[in-house]
Amino acid sequence: MKVILARDLLGVNTVKGENNREILEKKGLLTLNIISSPGAGKTTLLEVTMKSLKNKYNFGVIEGDLYTSRDALRLEEHSHAIVQINTCGMCHLNADMVARALKDMPLDSLDVIIIENVGNLVCPAAFYLGETFKVAVLSVPEGSDKPAKYPELFKEARAVIINKSDLLPYTDFDLPGCVKELRQINPRAEILVVSARTGEGMDQWIGWLEVNVQQIKQLSTKECLQ
Amino acid sequence: MHEFSLVSDLLETVMKSAEENGIKSVSKVKLTVGECHGALPEALSFAFMALSGDTVCSGAELDIDIKSGLLLCTACGHSFSYEILQTMCPECGSVYLDIISGRELRVDYYEGE
Predict the structure, then answer these.
(1) pLDDT at A41
(2) Which ipTM value was assigned to this complex?
(3) With an 8 Å Cβ cutoff, is A88 touching chain B?
(4) B5 and chain A in contact, CB less than 8 A
């Protein structure tokens, strides 16, 4: 017997992602899915970001790691609520894991949700979690050729952060070349060069984040009034 | 590893349908994978073999049809075949490209008794 299914395999995840998006939009929450390779500095970037905006916004953090809760412990003091997901070997977060984490979060008292995805430049890009935007983080020691080698993520990211700019003098990272290539891959992305460690360029990134928090809040208020 | 989670969704889908249709053993599963997708057929086959062991799909053939990718330049309307790292229209140089086909990752049908 032949049974026709014609079912999209990623569709299962996408539908769950859309459900998350609906919940988050209703609450007016900017949700960022932060993706990079391991060691690009996502957690340090988030530590510094949340520390400087702590008195202004309540952050909810969903922390994805294969194992351990080390990153969650680092971010705990700067966030209003944090949920650690251990994927136990799986290389990306999926929408179902995020849906379960959202259930444990006090959404009404939050302003922003940060999803720190599992460190991996490949798989997380394919799984929509319900985020407002993907943010790609690339660090200087990884090399300026990475956007062209891993275009899927960079194509989809609304913002690309080039982190560890304080190491530029010590490497042969070609910053103009990398920015040019990023613009070819994704002309619409905001490109931000920062060093989370020294604070260089962090104002622009934090400014970008604040503008988007406000925009999402206004959108949701407008919808409520209509 | 990414292929493993796709295959586990595939198995879940087929197992659920097989149960609904009273099928005890699946002999073939047909999958369509678009070229632009990035899921590797070899890795999908390996994951299928590794994960289907204790299921109705144990020993089934996984038939993968690769669908070639087609891109459309939204600036000049030129359409052309997908190549990895193609980020610009070969005609006008625009970077605004839409994927017309080749993003599929679909289980089409399965056969069994």
Answers:
(1) 97
(2) 0.82
(3) no
(4) yes
